[in-house]
């Protein structure tokens, strides 16, 4: 998990921000090797299009360490706010 967090912090996080995403929070469930984050994109393209552009980018393909092999299972949810910000 520590290696994953180092790669995520140095690579994924700044690149996601460069692509206009906002990270609203990131957590680890210690002892379970579970990483949870809330990723937001409010731009004109919509989340799915911008996410596809992120994954297709040369910068994402060049990330080292590549985060993909560290991911055993991934779940994504589109969420809507219940309370005002």
Strand count, sense and barrel status of the largest sheet are: 2 strands, antiparallel
Whole-number radius of gyration? 14 Å
The percent range for strand residues is: 15-25%
Low-confidence stretches: none
Terminal CA distance reads: 31 Å
Please tell me the total number of domains. Answer: 1
Principal-axis shape: globular
Number of strands: 2
Average pLDDT, all residues: 93
Could you characterize what this model shows?
- There is one protein chain.
- This protein has 85 residues and is an alpha+beta fold.
- A two-stranded antiparallel sheet has the order 1-2.
- It is built from 3 helices and 2 strands, in the order αββαα.
- A hairpin with a 4-residue loop joins β1 and β2.
- It has one domain (2-70).
- The mean pLDDT is 93.
Output the keywords.
85 residues, alpha+beta, single chain, 36% helix, two-stranded antiparallel ribbon
Topology:
Layout: H1 2-18, E1 22-29, E2 34-40, H2 47-56, H3 58-61
Antiparallel strand pairs: 1-2
What's the gist of this structure?
The protein is α+β, with helices and mostly antiparallel strands and 85 residues long.
